[in-house]
Structures are given as C-alpha cells and as structure tokens.
Amino acid sequence: MDKEQKLDFDQDLYSRQLSTYGPEMMQKLIKLRVFVQGLRGIGVETCKNLILAGPKKVVIHDDTKVEMRDLGSNFYCKEQDVGKVSRAEASLSQLKELNPYVEVSQHTGVVNEEVLKDFDVIVFTENYDGDFLHKMNEWARSQSPAKGFIWSGILGLYGFTFVDFGKGFEVLDKDGEDPKTGIVTQISSEEKAKVVTHARHNLQDGDYVRLKEVEGMTEINGKIYKIKTVTGQSFEIEEDTTKFTKYVRNGQFEQVKVPIKIDFKSLKDSLVNPNDKQFPPLENPDMVKFGRPEQLHV
C-alpha cells in the first residue's frame, strides 16, 4: 500500500491489529459486511471478536427464545431472558457497545438469498439443516464475486468449521508466519543454480526468496526466485548463472510472501472428501487415536 494513502479508520483504536494485519488488510476489513446466524456459544463468540476487529456491518439472527442452558454458552443471556426474548435480542445491545464504529443490527424471520445478497460473508453456526446449508452454499459460490461461506458447530467435545470463499480466492499470506531469512554461503554456476545456506533454511518447494548482498555474483542481487528445496541447507532457483560473475562470498536470502490463488471446494464436495492437496489433512489432536478426525467427520 502507498504510504501516502489515507487510512480510513482510527489508527489508535486498531493499533495492535494494524501492526498484525497490516494497513491493506485493515482497509478491506472496515468495508466488510457480515451476517451471522446462531447466537449460542460459537455464534456469540464469533460476533464479539468480529465486532472488536472493526468490520463495516454485522447483522445477527437467532429467533429462538433463550433457554436455561443458553446461560452456560451465551455470556450475554441472563436468567430474566429465559423464555421471554430471543438469543439475538438478549445479545444485541451489549454487542453494539463493543465498538461504536461497527453497525450492529438484528434480522428476524426467514433467511434466504434476498436477505443475504448485500453481505460479503455469511456465517451459520449450530445449524444442521443439510438441505438449507447446501442451497445457501451453492448460491454463495454462484455470486460474482463469490460470497464467503462459513459453517461451524460444536457437538459435545467435538467441534468443526467449514470455510468456502469460492474459486480463485487470493491469499496474500498462505501461513501467517514471519518471512524466513538466512545467510548464503555458496551459489553454483549452472543452468539451475543451487544456493547453499549457513543453517537450515526451513523453506518449502514453491516458496519465493529475494537474494541480496551477494559479492561476486552481483547480477543476482535484488531478484525474486521461486525455489525448489534440495536439502535442509540448500535450494535450487530458476536462474542460469553460467554467464554470471562467479560467486565470491557473503549474501543473504529473505522469503517473499507472494499472493496465491486457492479454489475452495463446495460443502457438498467437502463432506464427501474433506481432504484436498491445497490444504493440510484433518488435524489429529490425540496421537494415540490415529484416524479419529476422519471417523468423527463421517
């Protein structure tokens, strides 16, 4: 982002997340319009954190009257609310108080395409109506641009989250980790040059790096290369260095985060086959019970 570009938000209020997300992400976040259905444990926690982050608008929906058990999951529900007001009504006023810069309101009644058409992201929690969820997911994917679709729930000690942002979704930072850096000790002169590092580089195939402060083979300085790992302390770059000056000494590499495109799968496809080469496999929190996440998914 251009440093001279005006930031359209309170930088003091959002100072901590500005340093985490960056100004480009914050500019997108403050324009985001989100619909959240379900105000039990997951839903109310999602709304709280989302509103504190500072999107443009959050609309909540849950017409179910407050039950006694809700007092253990929705921290905004009170005993006097039981059987009298809906979960959304019980939560609305306190959610509004979290951030005066966010438009927080309540929707009552049916939820359909007409209601959701003006939102960027729609979130369904504690909803297990399969036909309805499939219908909304396919509709969200069909929009241009596709609308973000998130479905989450908790069943006892087991919880799940499904995310779908459509095809060709651009991810600016694929892992959120700090860029890796290291010292270069050798660069070969060959059609696909091999770069040797002083310590383990911790890079992966497909990562991008910028080389700098190299002495001798100065032609390589400042350029960005896609790498292929060779060993833990060496990687290959797509550069013919046979006509470059010979490497003499020194040099550093720094990882460059390059935007990537991701094709999310639909809810229907993901339920049949949750694993995908673009994403890591289902996490196994208990190393004694291999295959447990797949069993729970089924």
Name the features.
single chain; 298 residues; alpha/beta; six-stranded mixed sheet; six-stranded antiparallel beta barrel; 14 strands; 23% helix
What does this structure look like?
- By secondary structure, this protein is an alpha/beta fold.
- The protein contains eight helices and 14 strands.
- It has a six-stranded mixed sheet with strand order 3-2-1-4-5-6, with helices on both faces.
- Strand 1, helix 3 and strand 2 form a beta-alpha-beta unit.
- Helix 1 (15-21) packs across helix 2 and helix 3 runs parallel beside helix 4 (87-98).
- The longest helix is centred in the N-terminal third of the chain and has 13 residues, at 41-53.
- It is elongated and about 80 Å long.
- The mean pLDDT is 89.
Total helical segments: 8
Residue stretches low in confidence (pLDDT < 50, at least 5 long) are none
Instruction: Please trace the helix and strand order, writing H or E for each element.
Output: HHEHEHEHEHEEEEEEEEEEHH
Average pLDDT rating: 89
Beginning-to-end CA distance, first to last residue? 44 Å
> How much beta, percentage-wise?
15-25%
